[in-house]
Amino acid sequence: MEKFVKVYYCRLVILLIGMMRFKYVVACLCLVFVIVQCKNITIGNEPSYLTFATFNVSMESENYLGRGADGVSSQILKDKLSKGTSQHIINIAKIIQTKRPDVILLNEFDYIENPEEGIEKFIKEYLNLGHGDTEAIDYPYYYYSTFNTGVATPFDLNGDGKFEGNGNDAYGYGRYLGHYGMVLLSKFPIDKENIRTFQLFKWKDMPDYLKTSTVDSDNFYSPEAWQKFRLSSKSHWDVPIKFGDQTIHVLASHPTPPGFDGEEDRNGKRNHDEIRFWRDYIDNEGSSYIYDDLGKKGALGDTSFVIMGDLNSSPDEGSSIRSGIGDLLSHPRVNHKINPSSKGGERLSPTNESGKYHTALWKLRADYVLPSIDLNVVDCGVFWPVQGEVLHDLMLDRKSSSDHRMVWIKIKAAE
What we know:
With about 425 residues, the chain is α+β, with helices and mostly antiparallel strands.
C-alpha cells in the first residue's frame, strides 16, 4: 500500500471576542486572532535554486548482519532506526546534512510498511538532529511504495532446478519483501494524485526486449514464468514535485546489477531493459506500449524531469550491456553534457581517465541524476571527500556509510 505524508499542517483557531451593547446603540467589535502552526513552510517563498541527489545508503539488513547471514529481514532496520544510535545511520545522516539536497532518492533503504517505524523514524531520530558539526535537516514530504524484491514466485527464475520462492526466484532478487527498497524525500510538496508506478509492468510487453536464451538458444524462462515476469527488479516511479508554479517529475529506479548469473546474461539483459524503460518513457514516439500499475497508458509527456537512481551501468566500463545507459544519456531530452565528478574518485583510480566520474568504491559510474534539457543546471558533483577534508573518514566502506557516493545536481528554479 502506498504511503504518503505531508508533515505540513495548519490549525486555524478563531477567537471572536467582544459584543458590547449600549442603551440605544448595538456595537459589535470583532477581534479575530488567527494562529497558524506549521512545520517547515517551504512553499511560501519559491526557491531560487534546487538541489537533487541520489544516494545508495546501504540501509539493508545484510549490511548490518553480514552477507548471507541468517535472520535477515526489515526488522533489523526497524531496530536500528528505533534506537536512534546506529553509527552507520548517523554517518548517512551526516552526509545528507552536509550536502543538504532539496530532493533526495535513497536506494537500498529496506521497505518498512509502517512509516512511523521506518522513514519517519529516520527523519525524526537522525535527520532532525544535528551530529557534531552537521546541522539538522527536515524533509516534510516523502514517498515510498512496495517493491518486487522478495516477492515470491512459483517459478525457477534462475534456472538452477530449484523452486525457492524468494531470493533468485523472486520477481526481484531479495531475501525478504522489500529488500533493497527505496525512499524519496523532499522539502517541497509531492503531487500524490499524479504519481505513477510501474512495479507490475510485464517484461514481455516491451517491444524488442532483449531475449534471454539458453546455450541451446531456447527460452531461458518457462512460458508460464515469462507471461508473468515483471520488468522492474524493484519498481519504477514517476513522482511529480511542486516547486511553486513549477513541477518537476522525479523518475526513480534501481535496476538489477548485471552479473550474478550465467552465460544467458539474464541480469545484464534485464538491467539494459530497465534502463531502456526510462528512455522510452520520456520519448513520446516510442512509449505507446507503456502502462502503469493503475492501467493508464502512455508516456511522461512534455514536462520537466530528473532521472535518478543507482542504475548499475556505465557507458564506458564494466560488464553491463552499455547501449542501455548509452542510449538514455544520448536521448535529445536528456542533458548529457553535465558529468558529476569528484577528487575522491579520481584519486582512487589515478590512471583511469573515467575515475573522476566514478560513483562507487568498486570503481564505476553507477549512480545518476539526469535532468531534462530544459532545466538550467548550474552545478553538479559526486560527494567524495579526500583525505584531510570533512567526512573523509566516512568514505571507507559500507560499514562506514556506503560503497556508493551521493551524486547531486543544482538547478536554477524557473522564474
